[in-house]
Design goal:
Keywords: Pyrrolidone carboxylic acid, Secreted, Signal, Transport. By secondary structure, the protein is of the alpha+beta class. The protein has three helices and ten strands. The chain binds 2-acetamido-2-deoxy-beta-D-glucopyranose.
């Protein structure tokens, strides 16, 4: 076991270090009760995110469209270095007993990564959390505050952070996403 860790940790370290590592397994947050996948469809703007280090683009938004098979097509876009970049994926309800536990994949070859709806009112804002255990020793996580418009009231953002914190999700390093100057595309 020890030998294994000595070998594996340095290999994983760049990945972990670029994100927000926490010891122990993923927290088990409460998710949106009676989550309605259909009402979640449509356009969401990224208002704040954790961690800050990657995804340096701005004007990040995601458009969810329900498909006939009950999955959703996911179209994400951002402006990076003056160019509009898009990424297409699929969202599924992974756990029928808890429909707020979605999974998203951006490629046929990649597994679904967790995309849990912690809370949403469908019409203004949503709190999303994604966490992956690494060897059950530590976890790497992502969190987003999404809005139906490009900005949300400060009180909504602060309340969102409180909800994450109450669920043992550390959002002290959460940063605001840039949503300025997005309507005049390059
Ligand atoms: C979202 O996707 C749907 C279906 O492809 C499309 O009709 C709609 O115009 C898109 N909305 C935005 C804002 O891109």
């Amino acid at each position: 076991m020890q030998v294994c860790l000595v070998v594996i940790l340095p290999l994983l370290w760049p990945l972990i270090n670029a994100q927000v590592p926490h010891w122990g397994p993923c927290p088990e947050p409460v998710t949106q009760p009676a989550f309605n996948f259909k009402l979640f469809m449509g356009r969401w703007f990224e208002i704040a995110k954790l961690p800050a280090q990657f995804e340096k683009g701005r004007c990040i938004e995601t458009n969810f469209t329900l498909q006939f098979d009950g999955t959703a097509r996911v179209l994400s876009s951002e402006i990076l270095k003056g160019e509009l970049r898009t990424m297409e994926g699929t969202a599924v309800v992974e756990d029928k007993k808890n429909p707020a536990k979605l999974g998203i994949s951006f490629s046929y070859v990649l597994p679904y990564t967790p995309y849990w709806i912690i809370s949403t009112d469908y019409i203004n804002s949503a709190l999303v959390y994604s966490c992956t255990d690494v060897l059950r020793l530590f976890h790497v996580d992502f969190a987003w505050i999404l809005g139906r418009s490009r900005s949300l009231p400060e009180s909504t953002i602060n309340h969102g952070k409180e909800v994450f914190t109450k669920n043992n999700i550390d959002v002290s390093r959460m940063v605001a996403s840039r949503q300025q100057g997005c309507d005049k595309l390059p």
